[in-house]
Write a structure and sequence with these properties.
The complex is a heterodimer of chains A (280) and B (288). Chain A is built from eleven helices and eleven strands. By secondary structure, chain A is an alpha/beta fold. Chain A has two domains: 194 residues, P-loop containing nucleotide triphosphate hydrolases (Rossmann fold); 46 residues, Alpha-Beta Plaits. Chain A starts with a strand and ends with a helix. The model of chain A has no long low-confidence stretch (mean pLDDT 97). By secondary structure, chain B is α/β, with parallel strands linked by helices. Chain B has two domains: 225 residues, 3-Layer(aba) Sandwich (Rossmann fold); 51 residues, Alpha-Beta Plaits, CATH 3.30.70.20. Helices cover 36% and strands 24% of the residues of chain B. Chain B has eleven helices and eleven strands. A nine-stranded mixed sheet of chain B has the order 3-6-7-2-8-1-9-10-11, sandwiched between helices. In chain B, strands 4-5 form a two-stranded antiparallel sheet. In chain B, helix 7 packs parallel to helix 8. The mean pLDDT of chain B is 97. The chains are: A alpha/beta (280), B alpha/beta (288). Chains A and B meet through helix 4, helix 6, helix 7 and helix 9 of A and helix 4, helix 6, helix 7 and helix 9 of B.
Chain lengths: 280, 288
């Protein structure tokens, strides 16, 4: 089973829920941090990394001995990532979406592909939890191929918990796509509700069941609950504001370590998700 | 013309609430929400939309079943596995590269332009505002960010306003890169948590990479004094101006619920006092 943990709004507690859930379950579980722009889960899980690999995306390389400057590569490219200028061909690697169109269309077979570095993927483990995350190179704009690479490590024999990036555009959709269930972490504030509605919209487009965790559940108003009732969205857990939790989080400590009574609550959350997925 | 972008690296550190507070401290500016993916500034600004424009960008393949002979070439060439065995294009998976459109021997694939969202020019009680809404699951957020920034600049020039105050997106990827390029400065709003510090460092590296001067302030500083000092030490080492600290206070949430800035909610709060000091340093620094 794959559970993606998403939110719409940033800073609502996705990583807190993902890491504490993984740690509570403890065995036969993998945690994939797909917030490759700002991966944070490792700061809480403290995995021992045993593998680091560079992740690349294919971009065109032109053999000017073969090129006749016909310009077909520039015509097919929807992203203006390759263009014939004077006596040469200029690829703009950062704009390239790696579709392979220029290579396929070139009548002279003058185009091959090479890898352009997007970032790194690291694989490790901690107390029986398999941990994988991607880290986008600072200055790099193209995150979805790196997210796909992290997701390719999912293991059907294990429970896969995926920590998603904030928002509702391509990186988030990429992260939600393979999920059996999307757990949306929100806060009971106008910003939280506005962005929750967007995230719920994304799960509807993808047709994936979802449920809510309301974090800092006593710091705000009742409108998230009213919305959940209207939309028939199950509220699976509430985490009240607690300065001890906030301070533990600030240090990188886990809720289930600081307040062990929360372990049962996270296990209960997992049980409720399992039932919802089974009934789908 | 000065353009300040408020960013954070990590989401939820208080960018938008702080941005709203700043907007009541300075005259003669245009407000801009560049977090088009999950825009929230309008929830405090309560804008009256003056002009609404569709945002069109990119294309999606669509197979015309009457012409398709199911030869399979499109499925073979598509690198996104976006075409099903029944020859239907999954518009979410389609990257809009047009390779299938080009190579289809039966010319059976259409390639209509996408409407990905809309953008607005509005009036607010704090002046004009340019903002946008990217459709859910849509691409090209970077292009929409670039567009709202351009429109904010046009509006500022038209109205002869000297400052653009922009609420940026979280992260360090495409929308953030589109938000900060060419700006006068960025303000990084961070929090003293291990993730806040980690994400602040990455976004500070990004600003340095694009040679944008950076300033920093620490929100909820009293949650972890040691980390607050670590963050400020890091900033000083990197030549990032520290503007100040804001204590943890539920006033931000309370004000947000009332559709108010923290100053409107309570004119005499400690938080408000600290924000005024931060704004003073910021405007001296930007020579406003």
């Amino acid at each position: 089973m794959i559970i993606s943990i998403a939110s719409g709004k940033g800073g609502t507690g996705k990583t807190t829920v993902a890491t504490n859930l993984a740690l509570s379950i403890g065995s036969n579980v993998q945690l994939l941090d797909c917030d490759v722009e700002q991966p944070n889960a490792h700061l809480f899980i403290h995995p021992v990394f045993d593998r680091t690999e560079t992740v690349t995306t294919p971009v065109p390389e032109i053999d000017m001995d073969k090129c006749t400057l016909c310009g077909k590569c520039g015509e097919i490219c929807e992203f203006k990532a390759i263009v014939v200028v004077g006596e040469t061909v200029l690829p703009f690697e950062e704009l390239c979406h790696s579709c392979g169109g220029c290579m396929a269309v070139c009548p002279e077979d003058a185009i091959t592909e090479k890898g352009r570095e997007l970032g790194v993927l690291q694989k490790g483990h901690h107390n029986g939890i398999e941990f994988i995350h991607g880290k986008l190179r600072v200055g790099e704009a193209m995150s979805p191929p790196l997210i796909k690479e992290v997701l390719s490590y999912r293991d059907a024999a294990k429970l896969t918990i995926v920590d998603a990036p904030p928002g509702t555009s391509c990186p988030v959709i990429e992260t939600m796509k393979p999920a059996d269930f999307v757990l949306l972490v929100t806060e009971p504030t106008p910003f939280g509700l506005n962005d929750l509605k967007l995230a719920v919209g994304a799960t509807k487009i993808l047709d994936i069941p979802c449920g809510l965790v309301i974090n800092r559940s006593d710091m705000g108003d009742e409108k998230v609950k009213a919305y959940a009732a209207d939309e028939n969205l199950p509220i699976l857990m509430e985490i009240p504001f607690n300065r001890r939790i906030a301070e533990a989080y600030s240090r990188g400590d886990m809720i289930v370590d600081v307040m062990p009574e929360w372990k049962a609550k996270f296990l209960d959350l997992y049980d409720r998700i399992k039932i919802l997925v089974k009934n789908e | 013309m000065k353009e300040l972008i408020v960013i954070s690296g990590k989401g939820g550190t208080g960018k938008t609430s702080l941005m709203a507070a700043f907007s009541s401290l300075v005259e003669n500016k245009v407000l801009c929400d560049a977090d088009v993916d999950a825009a929230d500034l309008h929830l405090i600004m309560d804008p009256a939309v003056v002009r609404r424009t569709e945002f069109q960008s990119g294309n999606t393949a669509a197979i015309n079943k009457d012409l398709c002979t199911e030869c399979g070439l499109c499925r073979e060439m598509c690198r996104w596995d976006a075409i099903s065995a029944a020859y239907e294009v999954n518009s979410i998976d389609c990257e809009g590269c047009g390779v299938c459109v080009h190579f289809c021997p039966d010319k059976a694939i259409d390639f209509p332009e996408n409407t990905c969202g809309e953008w607005f020019v509005s009036d607010t009680r704090f002046g004009p505002m340019v903002h946008a809404r990217l459709g859910i699951a849509e691409e090209n957020s970077g292009k929409l960010v670039t567009l709202v920034r351009q429109e904010a600049r046009k509006l500022a020039e038209e109205k002869k306003l000297g400052l653009i105050l922009t609420d940026g997106p979280p992260g360090v990827g495409c929308p953030v890169i589109a938000s900060i390029g060419g700006a006068s400065a960025v303000l990084i709003v961070t929090e003293p948590t291990v993730s806040g510090k980690h994400d602040m460092e990455r976004v500070a590296q990004l600003s340095a990479h694009f040679k944008i001067p950076a300033m920093i302030c620490v929100n909820k500083f009293d949650l972890n004094l040691e980390l607050t000092r670590d963050i400020e030490n890091y900033a000083e080492k990197k030549g990032i101006t520290c503007l100040g600290r804001i204590p943890f206070d539920p006033i931000f949430t309370k004000a947000m619920i009332q559709v108010q800035t923290v100053f409107e909610y309570n004119g005499k709060s400690t938080v408000g006092h600290e924000i005024k000091k931060i704004w003073k340093r910021l405007s001296d620094n930007l020579e406003l």
